[in-house]
Amino acid sequence: MTKERRHRLLVGLVGMIALVVGSVMVVIFLNWSKYLIGPHQDPFTELYFEDHLKLPRKIEIGVPFKTTFTIVNQEAAGVTYPIKVYTINEAQPPNMIELYTTSVSLSIGAAKTFPLELTIPTYTTPRQKIVIELLEKNQTIHFWGTTSTASTTF
Prior knowledge:
This protein is α+β, with helices and mostly antiparallel strands. It is 23% helix and 44% strand.
C-alpha cells in the first residue's frame, strides 16, 4: 500500500468518524433542547366562563341575568379581540338576537374578565343558546337556558 493511498484512507476514516460524532451530537441536542430551552407552544387564546356551575339555566324574557367570562391572550403578540354575545333559539330556521358587542386589546399573557348583565328581549322558543364569540378567532363558548315570559312558571 502506498503512502498516498494510506493517507486517503486515513482522511476518509477521520471524515466518517467526524460524521458519526456530529450526527450523534445533533440527536443528543434535539432530544435535550426541549429541556434546555423549554417546549414549543403553539399560540392560542383562552375563552371560558368564570363559574360554569353558576350559569343561568332559567331565563325570564325581559329580565336581566348575569354571566361572567374571561379571555386570556396566549398568542405570540398583542391581540385585539372583537367580541359578540348573542342568543340563538330552537326555531327553524333559528333566530339570532345580538345582546352585546365590544372589543378588547390584550398584551401577551394578559387577561380580561367580563361581568355581563344581559336581557333576552323577546320570547321565541322555550330554549335559548347564549353564545360568546371571538369574531376574528372563530372561537365560541355557549350555554343553554330555558326561557319563559313573566307569566310562565318553570
